Protein backbone atom coordinates (compact mmCIF):
# COMPACT_ATOMS: atom_id res chain seq x y z
CA UNK A 1 0.00 0.00 0.00
CA UNK A 2 1.53 3.25 -1.10
CA UNK A 3 1.04 6.84 -0.13
CA UNK A 4 2.08 8.63 -3.28
CA UNK A 5 3.03 12.27 -3.56
CA UNK A 6 1.60 13.75 -6.73
CA UNK A 7 4.10 16.38 -7.89
CA UNK A 8 1.34 18.33 -9.63
CA UNK A 9 -1.33 18.27 -6.90
CA UNK A 10 1.50 18.61 -4.37
CA UNK A 11 -0.27 16.22 -2.01
CA UNK A 12 0.20 12.72 -0.70
CA UNK A 13 -2.71 10.59 -1.83
CA UNK A 14 -3.69 6.92 -1.49
CA UNK A 15 -2.43 4.42 -4.05
CA UNK A 16 -5.94 3.76 -5.32
CA UNK A 17 -6.00 7.18 -6.99
CA UNK A 18 -3.05 6.22 -9.17
CA UNK A 19 -2.36 3.87 -12.02
CA UNK A 20 1.03 2.24 -12.55
CA UNK A 21 1.91 2.50 -16.23
CA UNK A 22 5.10 0.46 -16.25
CA UNK A 23 8.69 1.20 -17.14
CA UNK A 24 9.57 4.84 -17.73
CA UNK A 25 11.85 6.53 -20.23
CA UNK A 26 11.28 4.07 -23.06
CA UNK A 27 12.30 6.11 -26.07
CA UNK A 28 10.16 5.67 -29.15
CA UNK A 29 12.33 4.95 -32.17
CA UNK A 30 12.56 8.03 -34.32
CA UNK A 31 12.38 6.03 -37.53
CA UNK A 32 10.35 2.86 -36.86
CA UNK A 33 10.28 1.85 -40.51
CA UNK A 34 14.01 1.27 -40.55
CA UNK A 35 14.00 -1.09 -37.55
CA UNK A 36 14.57 -4.81 -37.78
CA UNK A 37 11.88 -7.11 -36.35
CA UNK A 38 14.15 -7.80 -33.39
CA UNK A 39 14.67 -4.13 -32.60
CA UNK A 40 10.95 -3.36 -32.95
CA UNK A 41 10.00 -6.39 -30.81
CA UNK A 42 12.49 -5.28 -28.19
CA UNK A 43 11.04 -1.77 -28.12
CA UNK A 44 7.43 -2.97 -27.88
CA UNK A 45 7.63 -6.04 -25.65
CA UNK A 46 10.92 -6.39 -23.77
CA UNK A 47 11.37 -4.64 -20.44
CA UNK A 48 14.15 -4.20 -17.90
CA UNK A 49 12.05 -5.66 -15.07
CA UNK A 50 14.80 -5.11 -12.49
CA UNK A 51 14.83 -6.39 -8.93
CA UNK A 52 15.70 -3.17 -7.12
CA UNK A 53 15.37 0.45 -8.17
CA UNK A 54 13.06 0.93 -11.14
CA UNK A 55 12.08 4.07 -13.01
CA UNK A 56 8.33 3.99 -13.48
CA UNK A 57 5.60 5.99 -15.13
CA UNK A 58 2.52 6.61 -12.99
CA UNK A 59 -0.67 8.49 -13.63
CA UNK A 60 -2.83 10.28 -11.07
CA UNK A 61 -5.92 8.80 -12.71
CA UNK A 62 -8.61 9.91 -10.28
CA UNK A 63 -6.90 13.19 -9.49
CA UNK A 64 -5.26 15.58 -11.90
CA UNK A 65 -4.87 12.78 -14.51
CA UNK A 66 -1.28 13.86 -15.16
CA UNK A 67 1.62 11.50 -15.71
CA UNK A 68 4.75 11.64 -13.56
CA UNK A 69 7.78 9.50 -12.82
CA UNK A 70 8.77 7.51 -9.77
CA UNK A 71 11.92 5.65 -8.78
CA UNK A 72 10.82 2.74 -6.63
CA UNK A 73 12.58 -0.32 -5.24
CA UNK A 74 10.69 -3.34 -6.62
CA UNK A 75 11.97 -5.60 -3.82
CA UNK A 76 11.31 -3.39 -0.77
CA UNK A 77 8.62 -1.26 -2.49
CA UNK A 78 10.25 1.88 -1.07
CA UNK A 79 9.55 5.00 -3.12
CA UNK A 80 12.92 6.70 -3.63
CA UNK A 81 11.92 9.80 -5.55
CA UNK A 82 9.13 11.32 -7.58
CA UNK A 83 9.74 13.71 -10.45
CA UNK A 84 7.77 15.43 -13.15
CA UNK A 85 7.73 14.62 -16.83
CA UNK A 86 10.67 16.39 -18.41
CA UNK A 87 12.83 16.04 -15.30
CA UNK A 88 15.64 13.54 -14.81
CA UNK A 89 15.96 10.98 -12.00
CA UNK A 90 18.67 11.30 -9.34
CA UNK A 91 18.60 7.63 -8.36
CA UNK A 92 19.85 5.06 -10.87
CA UNK A 93 17.95 1.85 -11.67
CA UNK A 94 19.18 -1.54 -10.50
CA UNK A 95 21.46 -3.27 -12.99
CA UNK A 96 19.42 -4.68 -15.86
CA UNK A 97 20.26 -5.86 -19.33
CA UNK A 98 19.90 -2.84 -21.62
CA UNK A 99 18.02 -2.90 -24.88
CA UNK A 100 20.84 -3.70 -27.28
CA UNK A 101 18.91 -1.95 -30.02
CA UNK A 102 18.72 1.29 -28.03
CA UNK A 103 21.10 2.80 -30.58
CA UNK A 104 18.14 2.93 -32.95
CA UNK A 105 16.33 5.37 -30.75
CA UNK A 106 19.05 7.98 -31.05
CA UNK A 107 19.02 10.10 -34.16
CA UNK A 108 22.46 9.13 -35.32
CA UNK A 109 21.81 5.38 -35.37
CA UNK A 110 18.72 5.68 -37.48
CA UNK A 111 20.91 6.64 -40.44
CA UNK A 112 22.35 3.07 -40.52
CA UNK B 1 11.38 -45.60 -2.60
CA UNK B 2 8.80 -46.78 -0.15
CA UNK B 3 5.55 -47.55 -1.99
CA UNK B 4 2.53 -45.82 -0.47
CA UNK B 5 -0.68 -47.79 -0.08
CA UNK B 6 -3.60 -48.25 2.28
CA UNK B 7 -1.97 -51.41 3.56
CA UNK B 8 1.27 -49.50 4.21
CA UNK B 9 -0.64 -46.93 6.22
CA UNK B 10 -2.09 -49.73 8.36
CA UNK B 11 1.33 -51.34 8.77
CA UNK B 12 2.94 -48.08 9.88
CA UNK B 13 0.08 -47.43 12.27
CA UNK B 14 1.25 -50.57 14.15
CA UNK B 15 4.61 -48.85 14.79
CA UNK B 16 3.00 -45.51 15.67
CA UNK B 17 4.10 -44.00 12.33
CA UNK B 18 7.68 -43.76 13.54
CA UNK B 19 9.32 -45.72 10.73
CA UNK B 20 8.37 -43.80 7.62
CA UNK B 21 11.25 -43.23 5.24
CA UNK B 22 12.32 -39.71 4.41
CA UNK B 23 10.48 -38.71 1.26
CA UNK B 24 13.64 -37.60 -0.57
CA UNK B 25 17.39 -37.50 0.02
CA UNK B 26 19.32 -34.34 0.78
CA UNK B 27 22.42 -34.96 -1.36
CA UNK B 28 25.62 -32.99 -1.85
CA UNK B 29 25.78 -32.16 -5.55
CA UNK B 30 28.19 -33.84 -7.94
CA UNK B 31 30.63 -31.76 -9.99
CA UNK B 32 28.72 -32.30 -13.18
CA UNK B 33 25.26 -33.18 -14.48
CA UNK B 34 23.73 -33.85 -17.88
CA UNK B 35 20.94 -31.41 -17.08
CA UNK B 36 20.66 -28.82 -14.32
CA UNK B 37 17.20 -27.45 -13.60
CA UNK B 38 17.25 -24.09 -11.84
CA UNK B 39 14.17 -23.74 -9.66
CA UNK B 40 12.57 -26.41 -7.48
CA UNK B 41 8.92 -25.45 -7.81
CA UNK B 42 6.22 -27.59 -9.35
CA UNK B 43 7.29 -26.99 -12.95
CA UNK B 44 10.99 -27.56 -12.25
CA UNK B 45 10.37 -30.73 -10.28
CA UNK B 46 7.96 -32.01 -12.93
CA UNK B 47 10.62 -31.35 -15.56
CA UNK B 48 13.18 -33.36 -13.59
CA UNK B 49 10.71 -36.17 -12.98
CA UNK B 50 9.76 -36.56 -16.65
CA UNK B 51 13.40 -36.23 -17.76
CA UNK B 52 14.23 -39.23 -15.60
CA UNK B 53 11.08 -41.24 -16.17
CA UNK B 54 10.17 -40.67 -19.80
CA UNK B 55 13.49 -39.77 -21.34
CA UNK B 56 15.94 -41.84 -19.27
CA UNK B 57 18.10 -38.87 -18.28
CA UNK B 58 18.71 -39.41 -14.57
CA UNK B 59 21.97 -37.48 -14.13
CA UNK B 60 19.95 -34.40 -13.26
CA UNK B 61 20.08 -31.84 -10.47
CA UNK B 62 17.36 -29.44 -9.39
CA UNK B 63 18.83 -26.36 -7.71
CA UNK B 64 16.50 -24.43 -5.45
CA UNK B 65 17.43 -21.30 -3.52
CA UNK B 66 14.77 -21.82 -0.85
CA UNK B 67 12.88 -25.01 -0.19
CA UNK B 68 11.04 -27.22 -2.67
CA UNK B 69 7.69 -25.87 -3.80
CA UNK B 70 8.04 -22.80 -1.59
CA UNK B 71 7.35 -20.14 -4.21
CA UNK B 72 4.29 -19.84 -6.39
CA UNK B 73 3.56 -23.57 -6.05
CA UNK B 74 2.73 -22.87 -2.41
CA UNK B 75 0.89 -19.64 -3.15
CA UNK B 76 -1.59 -20.28 -5.94
CA UNK B 77 -5.31 -20.97 -5.76
CA UNK B 78 -4.92 -24.55 -7.11
CA UNK B 79 -7.38 -24.29 -9.99
CA UNK B 80 -6.90 -26.72 -12.89
CA UNK B 81 -8.69 -26.29 -16.22
CA UNK B 82 -7.87 -26.42 -19.92
CA UNK B 83 -10.64 -24.37 -21.56
CA UNK B 84 -8.35 -21.97 -23.43
CA UNK B 85 -9.44 -20.32 -26.65
CA UNK B 86 -6.53 -20.60 -29.03
CA UNK B 87 -5.31 -23.93 -30.41
CA UNK B 88 -1.74 -23.50 -29.17
CA UNK B 89 -2.67 -22.91 -25.54
CA UNK B 90 -5.65 -25.28 -25.58
CA UNK B 91 -3.40 -28.16 -26.70
CA UNK B 92 -0.77 -27.31 -24.10
CA UNK B 93 -3.18 -27.06 -21.17
CA UNK B 94 -5.15 -30.09 -22.33
CA UNK B 95 -1.89 -32.05 -22.45
CA UNK B 96 -1.45 -31.05 -18.80
CA UNK B 97 -5.06 -31.98 -18.00
CA UNK B 98 -4.56 -35.50 -19.35
CA UNK B 99 -1.47 -35.91 -17.20
CA UNK B 100 -3.37 -34.58 -14.16
CA UNK B 101 -5.98 -37.28 -14.65
CA UNK B 102 -3.47 -40.05 -14.00
CA UNK B 103 -1.00 -38.17 -11.84
CA UNK B 104 -1.74 -39.61 -8.40
CA UNK B 105 -1.37 -43.16 -9.76
CA UNK B 106 1.70 -42.27 -11.77
CA UNK B 107 3.47 -40.67 -8.81
CA UNK B 108 2.08 -43.08 -6.18
CA UNK B 109 1.33 -39.86 -4.30
CA UNK B 110 -2.12 -38.47 -3.69
CA UNK B 111 -2.19 -35.04 -5.29
CA UNK B 112 -5.89 -34.83 -4.36
CA UNK B 113 -6.87 -33.91 -7.90
CA UNK B 114 -10.59 -33.30 -7.68
CA UNK B 115 -12.47 -32.81 -10.95
CA UNK B 116 -15.26 -30.82 -9.41
CA UNK B 117 -15.79 -28.66 -12.49
CA UNK B 118 -14.97 -25.06 -13.30
CA UNK B 119 -17.53 -22.36 -14.07
CA UNK B 120 -16.49 -19.23 -15.96
CA UNK B 121 -19.37 -16.80 -15.52
CA UNK B 122 -20.73 -14.33 -18.02
CA UNK B 123 -22.42 -11.13 -16.89
CA UNK B 124 -23.02 -9.26 -20.14
CA UNK B 125 -24.20 -10.17 -23.62
CA UNK B 126 -20.66 -9.76 -24.90
CA UNK B 127 -19.40 -12.08 -22.15
CA UNK B 128 -21.89 -14.68 -23.35
CA UNK B 129 -20.79 -14.30 -26.98
CA UNK B 130 -17.16 -14.70 -25.95
CA UNK B 131 -18.01 -17.73 -23.83
CA UNK B 132 -19.96 -19.27 -26.69
CA UNK B 133 -17.01 -18.78 -29.01
CA UNK B 134 -14.59 -20.28 -26.49
CA UNK B 135 -16.78 -23.30 -25.67
CA UNK B 136 -17.16 -24.02 -29.39
CA UNK B 137 -13.41 -23.67 -29.90
CA UNK B 138 -12.80 -26.02 -26.96
CA UNK B 139 -15.19 -28.66 -28.29
CA UNK B 140 -13.61 -28.53 -31.74
CA UNK B 141 -10.29 -29.17 -30.01
CA UNK B 142 -11.69 -32.15 -28.12
CA UNK B 143 -11.87 -30.35 -24.78
CA UNK B 144 -15.02 -30.75 -22.73
CA UNK B 145 -17.13 -27.66 -22.32
CA UNK B 146 -20.75 -26.65 -22.10
CA UNK B 147 -22.71 -23.41 -22.26
CA UNK B 148 -25.00 -22.97 -19.29
CA UNK B 149 -27.75 -20.43 -18.76
CA UNK B 150 -28.38 -18.71 -15.44
CA UNK B 151 -30.85 -21.37 -14.32
CA UNK B 152 -28.37 -24.19 -14.95
CA UNK B 153 -25.65 -22.24 -13.11
CA UNK B 154 -28.03 -21.84 -10.18
CA UNK B 155 -28.56 -25.60 -10.10
CA UNK B 156 -24.81 -26.20 -9.83
CA UNK B 157 -24.14 -23.42 -7.30
CA UNK B 158 -27.37 -22.85 -5.38
CA UNK B 159 -25.74 -20.44 -2.95
CA UNK B 160 -24.63 -18.00 -5.63
CA UNK B 161 -26.91 -15.05 -6.25
CA UNK B 162 -28.04 -15.58 -9.85
CA UNK B 163 -30.98 -13.24 -9.68
CA UNK B 164 -31.53 -10.80 -12.54
CA UNK B 165 -31.61 -7.70 -10.35
CA UNK B 166 -27.93 -7.76 -9.39
CA UNK B 167 -25.68 -5.00 -10.62
CA UNK B 168 -23.78 -7.69 -12.58
CA UNK B 169 -26.37 -10.42 -13.11
CA UNK B 170 -25.14 -13.93 -13.88
CA UNK B 171 -26.37 -14.54 -17.43
CA UNK B 172 -24.72 -17.91 -17.86
CA UNK B 173 -21.37 -19.61 -17.82
CA UNK B 174 -19.02 -21.99 -19.49
CA UNK B 175 -18.71 -25.26 -17.62
CA UNK B 176 -15.72 -27.56 -17.84
CA UNK B 177 -16.63 -30.65 -15.80
CA UNK B 178 -13.10 -32.09 -16.00
CA UNK B 179 -11.61 -28.98 -14.42
CA UNK B 180 -11.17 -28.71 -10.69
CA UNK B 181 -8.55 -28.30 -8.04
CA UNK B 182 -5.50 -30.19 -6.79
CA UNK B 183 -3.50 -30.08 -3.60
CA UNK B 184 -0.68 -27.70 -4.57
CA UNK B 185 1.97 -28.82 -2.06
CA UNK B 186 1.33 -32.48 -2.81
CA UNK B 187 2.05 -31.83 -6.47
CA UNK B 188 5.51 -30.45 -5.67
CA UNK B 189 6.19 -33.16 -3.10
CA UNK B 190 4.95 -35.96 -5.36
CA UNK B 191 7.13 -34.86 -8.25
CA UNK B 192 10.08 -34.34 -5.90
CA UNK B 193 9.71 -37.80 -4.41
CA UNK B 194 9.31 -39.40 -7.83
CA UNK B 195 12.31 -37.56 -9.28
CA UNK B 196 14.47 -38.36 -6.25
CA UNK B 197 13.62 -42.04 -6.49
CA UNK B 198 14.78 -42.05 -10.11
CA UNK B 199 18.15 -40.59 -9.12
CA UNK B 200 17.62 -36.85 -9.51
CA UNK B 201 19.56 -34.79 -6.95
CA UNK B 202 17.39 -32.15 -5.27
CA UNK B 203 19.67 -29.39 -3.98
CA UNK B 204 17.91 -27.00 -1.61
CA UNK B 205 19.05 -23.77 0.06
CA UNK B 206 21.46 -23.12 -2.79
CA UNK B 207 20.99 -20.14 -5.09
CA UNK B 208 22.29 -19.79 -8.61
CA UNK B 209 24.27 -16.54 -8.93
CA UNK B 210 25.54 -16.82 -12.48
CA UNK B 211 26.18 -18.98 -15.51
CA UNK B 212 29.38 -20.35 -16.99
CA UNK B 213 29.19 -19.44 -20.64
CA UNK B 214 31.90 -20.30 -23.17
CA UNK B 215 31.65 -19.23 -26.81
CA UNK B 216 27.93 -18.70 -26.56
CA UNK B 217 27.29 -22.09 -24.95
CA UNK B 218 26.32 -22.56 -21.33
CA UNK B 219 28.54 -25.08 -19.55
CA UNK B 220 27.42 -24.76 -15.95
CA UNK B 221 25.94 -22.68 -13.19
CA UNK B 222 27.65 -20.77 -10.40
CA UNK B 223 26.02 -21.44 -7.06
CA UNK B 224 26.25 -19.85 -3.64
CA UNK B 225 26.85 -23.08 -1.72
CA UNK B 226 28.73 -25.42 -4.02
CA UNK B 227 30.69 -23.24 -6.43
CA UNK B 228 30.40 -24.11 -10.09
CA UNK B 229 28.31 -27.09 -11.10
CA UNK B 230 28.89 -28.18 -14.68
CA UNK B 231 25.91 -28.95 -16.85
CA UNK B 232 25.32 -30.23 -20.35
CA UNK B 233 22.09 -28.30 -20.50
CA UNK B 234 20.50 -25.80 -18.16
CA UNK B 235 16.73 -25.35 -17.84
CA UNK B 236 15.55 -22.29 -15.92
CA UNK B 237 12.13 -22.56 -14.31
CA UNK B 238 12.10 -19.76 -11.76
CA UNK B 239 8.81 -17.93 -12.43
CA UNK B 240 8.91 -14.41 -10.97
CA UNK B 241 12.69 -14.29 -10.87
CA UNK B 242 13.16 -15.35 -14.50
CA UNK B 243 14.09 -11.85 -15.55
CA UNK B 244 16.78 -11.65 -12.89
CA UNK B 245 18.20 -15.05 -13.87
CA UNK B 246 18.12 -14.19 -17.57
CA UNK B 247 19.97 -11.00 -16.73
CA UNK B 248 22.83 -13.11 -15.33
CA UNK B 249 23.19 -14.60 -18.79
CA UNK B 250 22.92 -11.17 -20.42
CA UNK B 251 19.46 -11.89 -21.81
CA UNK B 252 16.33 -9.76 -21.85
CA UNK B 253 12.96 -11.48 -21.63
CA UNK B 254 9.54 -10.11 -22.54
CA UNK B 255 8.44 -10.37 -18.92
CA UNK B 256 7.39 -8.17 -16.07
CA UNK B 257 7.14 -9.47 -12.52
CA UNK B 258 4.06 -8.51 -10.52
CA UNK B 259 2.64 -9.46 -7.14
CA UNK B 260 -0.45 -11.66 -7.31
CA UNK B 261 -2.39 -11.97 -4.08
CA UNK B 262 -4.68 -14.63 -2.73
CA UNK B 263 -6.49 -15.19 0.51
CA UNK B 264 -8.32 -17.88 2.43
CA UNK B 265 -11.16 -17.61 4.89
CA UNK B 266 -11.65 -19.39 8.16
CA UNK B 267 -12.81 -22.99 7.58
CA UNK B 268 -16.54 -23.26 7.14
CA UNK B 269 -18.90 -26.16 6.44
CA UNK B 270 -19.15 -27.37 2.82
CA UNK B 271 -20.93 -24.73 0.77
CA UNK B 272 -19.21 -24.66 -2.61
CA UNK B 273 -18.37 -27.92 -4.37
CA UNK B 274 -17.06 -26.47 -7.62
CA UNK B 275 -14.81 -23.64 -8.84
CA UNK B 276 -16.44 -20.31 -9.71
CA UNK B 277 -14.51 -17.80 -11.80
CA UNK B 278 -15.69 -14.50 -13.17
CA UNK B 279 -13.75 -12.30 -15.51
CA UNK B 280 -16.23 -9.50 -15.38
CA UNK B 281 -16.44 -8.86 -11.65
CA UNK B 282 -12.94 -10.29 -11.54
CA UNK B 283 -12.52 -12.91 -8.89
CA UNK B 284 -12.42 -16.65 -8.40
CA UNK B 285 -13.33 -18.84 -5.48
CA UNK B 286 -13.34 -22.48 -4.49
CA UNK B 287 -13.55 -24.28 -1.18
CA UNK B 288 -10.67 -26.42 0.00
CA UNK B 289 -11.09 -29.80 1.66
CA UNK B 290 -10.29 -28.11 4.97
CA UNK B 291 -13.29 -25.88 4.42
CA UNK B 292 -11.64 -22.55 3.79
CA UNK B 293 -12.73 -20.45 0.86
CA UNK B 294 -9.75 -19.96 -1.45
CA UNK B 295 -10.05 -16.59 -3.15
CA UNK B 296 -7.98 -14.82 -5.76
CA UNK B 297 -8.21 -12.22 -8.49
CA UNK B 298 -5.86 -10.00 -10.44
CA UNK B 299 -2.30 -8.82 -10.12
CA UNK B 300 -1.18 -5.59 -8.54
CA UNK B 301 -0.48 -3.19 -11.38
CA UNK B 302 3.06 -2.23 -10.46
CA UNK B 303 6.22 -4.30 -10.87
CA UNK B 304 7.25 -6.05 -7.71
CA UNK B 305 9.40 -8.82 -6.33
CA UNK B 306 8.26 -8.41 -2.74
CA UNK B 307 5.78 -11.34 -2.49
CA UNK B 308 3.18 -8.95 -1.15
CA UNK B 309 0.76 -6.54 -2.71
CA UNK B 310 -1.50 -3.65 -1.84
CA UNK B 311 -4.66 -3.54 0.21
CA UNK B 312 -6.95 -2.05 -2.48
CA UNK B 313 -6.37 -5.14 -4.63
CA UNK B 314 -7.63 -7.40 -1.85
CA UNK B 315 -10.61 -5.12 -1.34
CA UNK B 316 -11.53 -5.37 -5.04
CA UNK B 317 -11.12 -9.13 -4.92
CA UNK B 318 -13.37 -9.55 -1.93
CA UNK B 319 -16.01 -7.15 -3.27
CA UNK B 320 -16.11 -9.20 -6.50
CA UNK B 321 -16.69 -12.40 -4.53
CA UNK B 322 -19.42 -10.71 -2.49
CA UNK B 323 -21.13 -9.56 -5.68
CA UNK B 324 -21.48 -13.26 -6.55
CA UNK B 325 -21.96 -14.60 -3.04
CA UNK B 326 -23.60 -12.07 -0.70
CA UNK B 327 -23.96 -15.05 1.66
CA UNK B 328 -20.20 -14.88 2.32
CA UNK B 329 -20.37 -11.34 3.69
CA UNK B 330 -19.88 -12.44 7.31
CA UNK B 331 -17.09 -14.93 6.62
CA UNK B 332 -13.82 -13.81 8.15
CA UNK B 333 -10.60 -14.00 6.20
CA UNK B 334 -7.84 -16.00 7.78
CA UNK B 335 -4.67 -15.48 5.78
CA UNK B 336 -3.56 -13.41 2.82
CA UNK B 337 -0.33 -13.56 0.86
CA UNK B 338 1.32 -12.69 -2.42
CA UNK B 339 3.45 -14.47 -4.98
CA UNK B 340 5.53 -13.05 -7.80
CA UNK B 341 4.16 -13.87 -11.22
CA UNK B 342 6.10 -13.30 -14.43
CA UNK B 343 3.63 -11.94 -16.94
CA UNK B 344 4.17 -11.80 -20.69
CA UNK B 345 2.52 -9.27 -23.00
CA UNK B 346 0.24 -11.96 -24.50
CA UNK B 347 -0.46 -13.83 -21.22
CA UNK B 348 1.07 -17.02 -22.59
CA UNK B 349 4.19 -18.74 -21.32
CA UNK B 350 7.69 -18.81 -22.75
CA UNK B 351 9.00 -22.34 -23.29
CA UNK B 352 12.01 -21.66 -25.34
CA UNK B 353 15.62 -21.98 -26.28
CA UNK B 354 17.64 -18.81 -25.97
CA UNK B 355 20.42 -17.25 -28.01
CA UNK B 356 22.80 -19.05 -25.64
CA UNK B 357 23.26 -22.66 -26.70
CA UNK B 358 21.93 -25.27 -24.23
CA UNK B 359 20.27 -22.62 -22.05
CA UNK B 360 16.50 -23.04 -21.95
CA UNK B 361 13.80 -21.03 -20.22
CA UNK B 362 10.36 -22.17 -19.12
CA UNK B 363 8.65 -19.12 -17.64
CA UNK B 364 6.07 -16.43 -18.23
CA UNK B 365 3.21 -18.56 -16.91
CA UNK B 366 1.97 -15.42 -15.23
CA UNK B 367 -1.18 -15.88 -13.23
CA UNK B 368 -2.05 -19.38 -14.42
CA UNK B 369 0.90 -21.71 -14.16
CA UNK B 370 -0.29 -24.20 -11.57
CA UNK B 371 -2.81 -25.88 -13.85
CA UNK B 372 -0.07 -26.57 -16.39
CA UNK B 373 2.44 -28.09 -13.96
CA UNK B 374 2.63 -31.66 -15.33
CA UNK B 375 2.22 -30.61 -18.96
CA UNK B 376 4.79 -27.85 -18.66
CA UNK B 377 7.25 -30.24 -17.05
CA UNK B 378 6.60 -32.89 -19.66
CA UNK B 379 7.08 -30.74 -22.76
CA UNK B 380 10.07 -28.97 -21.23
CA UNK B 381 11.69 -32.30 -20.33
CA UNK B 382 11.10 -33.55 -23.88
CA UNK B 383 12.68 -30.39 -25.27
CA UNK B 384 15.71 -30.63 -22.98
CA UNK B 385 16.16 -34.34 -23.69
CA UNK B 386 16.00 -34.02 -27.47
CA UNK B 387 17.63 -30.64 -27.85
CA UNK B 388 14.68 -29.62 -29.97
CA UNK B 389 11.51 -27.98 -28.73
CA UNK B 390 8.52 -30.27 -28.23
CA UNK B 391 5.74 -29.80 -30.83
CA UNK B 392 3.41 -28.31 -28.21
CA UNK B 393 6.11 -25.93 -26.95
CA UNK B 394 7.18 -24.56 -30.34
CA UNK B 395 4.55 -21.80 -30.55
CA UNK B 396 5.70 -20.52 -27.14
CA UNK B 397 9.16 -19.49 -28.29
CA UNK B 398 10.60 -16.13 -27.25
CA UNK B 399 10.87 -15.38 -30.99
CA UNK B 400 7.15 -14.78 -31.20
CA UNK B 401 7.71 -11.29 -29.81
CA UNK B 402 9.86 -10.51 -32.82
CA UNK B 403 7.82 -12.28 -35.48
CA UNK B 404 4.50 -11.05 -34.10
CA UNK B 405 2.98 -14.56 -33.85
CA UNK B 406 1.50 -13.83 -30.43
CA UNK B 407 -1.04 -16.08 -28.76
CA UNK B 408 -3.38 -13.50 -27.35
CA UNK B 409 -5.09 -15.19 -24.43
CA UNK B 410 -5.88 -12.02 -22.49
CA UNK B 411 -9.40 -12.42 -21.25
CA UNK B 412 -10.41 -14.47 -24.25
CA UNK B 413 -9.99 -17.75 -22.43
CA UNK B 414 -11.84 -16.76 -19.31
CA UNK B 415 -8.54 -16.08 -17.65
CA UNK B 416 -9.26 -13.93 -14.66
CA UNK B 417 -6.39 -11.51 -14.88
Report the sheet-strand fraction of chain A: 25-35%
DSSP summary: helix tally of chain B: 11
Largest sheet of chain B: 8 strands, mixed
- Which spans of chain A of ≥5 residues are poorly predicted at pLDDT below 50? 104-112
Terminal residue distance of chain B:
40 Å
Number of helical elements of chain A: 2
Shape, per Cα inertia axes of chain B: globular
Low-confidence sequence ranges of chain B: none
CATH architecture of chain A: 2-Layer Sandwich
Share of helix of chain B, binned: 25-40%
The pair of chains with the biggest contact is: A-B, 34 and 28 residues
Description of the molecule:
The complex is a heterodimer of chains A (112) and B (417). Chain A is mainly beta. In chain A, 12% of the residues lie in helices and 29% in strands. Chain A has one domain (3-111): 2-Layer Sandwich (Folate-binding fold). Chain A is built from two helices and six strands; from the N terminus they run E-E-E-H-E-E-E-H. In chain B, the strands form three sheets. In chain B, strands 1, 2, 8, 9, 10, 11, 17 and 18 form an eight-stranded mixed β-sheet that branches. In chain B, strands 5-6-4-13-14-15-12-16 form an eight-stranded mixed β-sheet. In chain B, strands 3-7 form a two-stranded antiparallel ribbon. In chain B, helix 2 runs parallel beside helix 7 (184-197). The model of chain B has no long low-confidence stretch (mean pLDDT 95). In chain B, a hairpin with a 5-residue loop joins strand 17 and strand 18 (359-363). The chains are: A mainly beta (112), B alpha/beta (417). Chain A binds chain B through residues 1-2, 14-16, 19-20, 22-23, 37-38, 40-42, 44-51, 54, 56, 72, 74-77, 95-97, 99-100, and chain B through 241, 243-244, 246-247, 250-257, 301-306, 308, 310-312, 345, 401-404.
Amino acid sequence: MFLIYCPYCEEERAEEEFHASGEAHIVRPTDPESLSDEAWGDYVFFRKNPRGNHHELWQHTTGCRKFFYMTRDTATYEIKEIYKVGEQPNVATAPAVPNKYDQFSSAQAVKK
Amino acid sequence: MQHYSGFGLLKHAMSHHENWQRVWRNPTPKKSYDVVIVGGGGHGLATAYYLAKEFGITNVAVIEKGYLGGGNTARNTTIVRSNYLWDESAFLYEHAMKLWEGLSQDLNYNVMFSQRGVLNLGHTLQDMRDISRRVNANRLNGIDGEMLDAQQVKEIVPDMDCSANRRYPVMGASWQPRGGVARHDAVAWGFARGADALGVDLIQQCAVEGFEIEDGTVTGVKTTQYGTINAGKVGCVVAGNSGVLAGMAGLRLPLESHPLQALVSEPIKPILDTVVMSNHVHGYVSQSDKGDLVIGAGIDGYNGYGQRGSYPTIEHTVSAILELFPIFSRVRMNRQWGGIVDTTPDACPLISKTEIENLYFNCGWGTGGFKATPGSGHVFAASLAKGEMHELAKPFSIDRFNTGALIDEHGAAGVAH
